[in-house]
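Session log. Operator J.P. requested a structure for one protein chain; no other inputs attached. Running the standard single-chain path with token output.
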Amino acid sequence: MSKLLIEAFYGGSHKQLMDVLKEEIEGCVLYSLPAKKWHWRARTAALYFMQAVPPSDTYRVLFTSSVLNLAELVALRTDLGKLKKVLYFHENQLIYPVRKSQERDFQYGYNQILSCLVADTVVFNSAFNMESFLTSIGKFLKMIPDHRPKDLERIIRSKSQVVYFPVMFPDVSRFLPEQKRVSQRATSDKSLGSLAHSIESEVPSQNDAVAPSAPSGLSDQQIEGNVVQKSEELINIKASLSEDSSGGDQHVMPNSSPASLCNDSQRPLHIVWPHRWEHDKDPETFFKIMMKLKEQELPFHLSVLGETFTDVPEIFSQARISLGSAVLHWGFLPSKDDYYQVLCEADVVISTAKHEFFGVAMLEAVHCGCFPLCPKSLVYPELFPVEYLYSTPEQLLKKLQNFCKRPDTARRRRIQVETAPYSWAALNGEFTSLLTAEPRKDL
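Structure written below.
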């Protein structure tokens, strides 16, 4: 038990990451709190873990997410302060959107800055996440009325790096319609060829996985490391035999039917929205567009998946009634197989997010052959080529109108998004390195 994992919000992508590390890297022990009442976890989790984590002279590394106030924990538990402390950012509170005119709570962002200062290594799940956090520190600290600290961006940047979230892409071949099987084989071969070329030439990959507009914080070494560090396991990337821990309980409406019963030209476009049911994913914009499609009498089917927490935006209950027979699936799918089967049956996956620092659900849907449509902002230009990005809701509506009229155009397009660089097979070496510590004389 040389590696101590602490997760103050054990749900969603936070849970996925900790489960992968615990299962795949030897010597990990996990302590966690359920994914409820996020604000209280951020405020008080350090006090809980001070008592919950027993002392041990076998720990060498502490790995935690930025929900935890790491500064408080190591002050309360000086024995943990001696460990190599790795802080992982799934999101950051300096630019996290707040509802309406609600005042941003200074304490959450301040806690993350303090945690960075006491951490030995600060890791972000995307270059967008890293740059948006680091470049916002100065402006954020101007909220302090006087005697403001200096040079914190420089101090934190010096120990910061990007390591993408490791997605456990499963083998979904048994769920794929024939057309998607053909496209996936072609895309997989292209992806492997591109990776092999990168390895042979020892030049960082400049493929679609990192778009030209990606933030400059992603170094050549990081891009190359993400792709080639596990080159001997490229065949495993193609196989994608490991399983992921997202997904949820299938609610199949009476009018649903297997996708295979109709040919491409007859079957309505199947749209999927697989995100958390929370305001930062902007469900209002999404459902507004869906209602316009219905008002125009354009044929489509809809699956609305994703986790729900304490407060579900009212728009979901309204949309469920208004969209009526267009709905095929509605609600969280706890069965991973059911979740991936819906993604494999769907044609188009949509994000309308106002906040996204990585986007596991979008990459999972692409892995299942869905054509992605994402905002031309946030992390998306870093992960998706420009052809999958839209600038305004009107652009998104127009794309969907065209797809609804000719759904085969979406189904038969080869998706030029490489998911291999974001797989556990490509990234496990970097996480293993993060969880490795040199022997210390004071331990």
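Operator note: The longest strand covers residues 3-10.
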